[in-house]
Task: structure prediction
Amino acid sequence: MSADGFEAARLLPWRGGDGKPAHVIADSDLPGPLSRRADVVESAQLEMAGVLLGHARQLVDESGPEELRYLVVELTRILTDVLRIAVRVRS
Result:
């Protein structure tokens, strides 16, 4: 808790309706439903990243341009999610 009595804002693993980053101010000792939901989403995103990385390793040597393009799009999307989580954890 900071000196003014408020917790630091947590970056959520999704964007708000306006496309801007979404945050919640929560008590880390007593997480609310939104913080718990964010934990579940982050866990799923990390799991998906691992699965996608496994597919990428298989496809790199045996795929044509269309499959590789799709792979790059999905890897970019999931890497964005993972970096969002990493930034939150690091701060």
Summary: The first strand starts at residue 9 and ends at 15. The helical segments are 33-59, 65-90. The radius of gyration is 17 Å. The chain has a mean pLDDT of 82.
